[in-house]
Amino acid sequence: MIDTHRRNPLYCRPRKVGLMKGKNKERMKVFWRVFDRINDAMAGLAGIILVFICGAVCYSIGMRYLFKKTTIWIMQTTEYALLWILFLSTAWLLREGGHIITDIIHSHLSEKTKRHLDVTMFSLAGLACIVMLYFGFDYMGECITRSVNDVRGVTLPKWPIFMIIPIGSLLLALQFFRMAWARITGSKESR
């Protein structure tokens, strides 16, 4: 008996379709695993920067009170380090559920309404992060083309300082959309 389906170019074997779907699913798992590792590394870097800030401020206070000498770079560096801590760690904090949640209304809703509300809120937050990503890239490009420098204690070009805004916004947007998709599909794969 001759299998006519093998000669038909439009025929697609169900086994191959299933494998393709499985491959895409595996690729997404690998992507999210790498994404999580990047978030973990960025949160670790934020912790290191926080320790540096604490040490630098203690050093500045000690120098001022013990030796009557100040360091001019510490205030400026601390301000920018706080910006980096914020954008390095927010996607990780969102994934871990560390943000403050006001659930006075949310706790009284039905599960279906909660899901719709969560999907809406996560999607809107992801879109807001996309807007921050756009304006972050725009500002960074402006700083590069105009050679904008921060002239205070230490003269620094601004674009390397502010490049963390689009990077952090992208990761945060991806995490919000990931959480929205997890609520849509009902999976626990938001981590």
Write a concise keyword list for the protein shown above.
191 residues; mainly alpha; two-stranded antiparallel ribbon; 73% helix; elongated; disordered N terminus
Provide a brief overview of the structure.
Helices cover 73% and strands 3% of the residues.
Written overview of the protein:
- This protein is mostly helical.
- The protein has one domain (about 20-100, about 105-185).
- The chain has 5 helices and 2 strands, in the order αααββαα.
- The chain has helices at about 15-65, 75-95, 110-145, 160, 165-185; strands at about 150, 155.
- Residues about 1-20 have low confidence and may be disordered.
Order of strands, main sheet, comes to: 1-2
SSE pattern: HHHEEHH
User: How would you describe the oligomerization state of the chains in this entry?
Assistant: single chain
Alpha carbon gyration radius: 24 Å
Domain unit count? 1
- Give the strand tally: 2
Number of helices: 5
Gross geometry: elongated
The secondary-structure class comes to mainly alpha
pLDDT below 50 for ≥5 consecutive residues: which ranges? Answer: 1-20
Largest sheet: 2 strands, antiparallel
Indicate the proportion of strand residues: under 5%
Provide the fold topology.
Blueprint: H1 14-67, H2 73-96, H3 111-145, E1 149-151, E2 155-157, H4 158-162, H5 164-185
Antiparallel strand pairs: 1-2
Helix pairs in contact: 1-2, 2-5, 3-5
